[in-house]
Amino acid sequence: MNNQPASPDLHGRTALVTGASRGIGRAVAVALAQAGARCILVARTQGGLEQTDDLIRQHAKQDAVLLPLDLLDGERLDTLGPSIALQEGGLDILVHCAGELGLLSPLPHIRPQDMERALHAGPGVTWRLIRTLAPLLERSQAGRAVFLTDRHARQPAPFWGMVAASRAAQDAIVRTWAQELPPHSALRINLFEPGMVATRLRRLAMPALDMASLTTPQAIAPQIIRLCLPGPQPQGCYVQAVPEPELHA
């Protein structure tokens, strides 16, 4: 008897991944494509998107749609949903991996413009993504939306106040959206906490940390893919990859 789990099957489904030029976003995009999804990749840099596209061609034998876009550009972001509807006909999956670290600083030392940018890049972008993509995801027969978060949304730590405020506000927006759906909705919306992963942002935040000891983005991606599959899924949950040890940053 073969007890191996079945490979995820996302053929015929269209997925959008933000932050797809590196790290977890890149790994998720490649995994989605390997499962058969048609991928729309969003990030600021054309070069990074092309590198992800090269990996998708290598591992999934298909092309991705590349959308160089600064998510802080609200007017352009607002056109994303209508553009996808016109070009692709619909959207089934959103995985929001894009994010900024912000400043690690005592709260009294944070400048107003830096806090404003953090709230724009975190909950502000999340709200605009929901606003422009919700009509498409709600029309899908099995819409899925996954938003990356981290422990500081629930456990603020000294000097991480900017991150904590941004993530907590994002999480509240995502949970509210999930609660606003009608009972019969096929859309499933979840938060995913990847834990300590060897990414560029983690290196910036903790330069003394041994990156080789951390989980890789490629190891995390399958857990996110499981939240994108049709079939029974949780709703509005905070899904953790592996609980993190307490760190004093």
Describe the protein.
It is built from 8 helices and 7 strands. The N and C termini lie far apart (48 Å). It has a 7-stranded parallel beta sheet, with helices on both faces. The chain has one domain (14-229): NAD(P)-binding Rossmann-like Domain (Rossmann fold, 3-Layer(aba) Sandwich), CATH 3.40.50.720. It has helices spanning 23-34, 46-60, 74-78, 80-88, 112-139, 161-180, 200-205, 217-226; strands spanning 14-18, 38-43, 65-68, 93-96, 144-148, 188-193, 238-240. The protein is of the alpha/beta class. Mean pLDDT is 88; it is low at 242-249. The protein is globular. Helix 1 packs parallel to helix 2 (46-60) and helix 5 (112-139) runs parallel beside helix 6. Helix 5 (112-139) links the parallel strand 4 (93-96) and strand 5.
